[in-house]
Specification:
Helix content: 25-40%
Strand content: 35-45%
CATH superfamily of the largest domain: SOR catalytic domain
Shape: rod-shaped
Number of helices: 1
Number of strands: 7
CATH architecture of the largest domain: Sandwich
Structural class: alpha+beta
Number of domains: 2
Length: 132
């Protein structure tokens, strides 16, 4: 009888130790998942949500000059990237109904000129190719 009681007490200790380990691992898993979600949301905010939402985008060349005219409506203010070749120009624009930006590019030959914004929750490029 005494041997049975010791065996039951031993099993209770093991069960208690195992349940304590299980709670520790569950806490570690939940903490890691929360940290991962926070890190991914910061990255997503910086890489996507930081950009402006624009509409009615027009990219036009002014005659035979090297000047390019960007016209668009700002729906939600934020960052805009203007690209040509390997150059990237970044600018933050405030919301205005209609907006236009002019830049003269020092490109030669076939050149793709683009403006990066976002549509809904995804990054978006509007681009057009010109020959300088």
């Amino acid at each position: 009888m005494s041997n049975e009681k010791e065996y039951v007490v031993s099993l209770k200790r093991q069960l208690y130790a195992e349940s304590k380990k299980k709670k520790k691992f569950q806490g570690l898993f939940v903490g890691s998942a929360v940290a991962l979600i926070i890190i991914l949301s910061i990255i997503y905010n910086r890489l996507v949500l930081d950009y402006a939402v624009i509409d009615n985008v027009k990219i036009q060349r002014q005659g035979n000059s090297r000047e390019i005219l960007f016209q668009f409506d700002v729906v939600e203010p934020g960052r805009l990237d203007f690209n040509y070749g390997k150059a990237v120009l970044t600018d933050t624009k405030t919301a205005q109904r209609e907006m236009e930006i002019r830049w003269a590019w020092e490109a030669n030959g076939d050149t793709v000129i683009a403006i990066r914004s976002r549509k809904w929750l995804f990054p978006h490029w509007d681009d057009k190719e010109f020959v300088f």
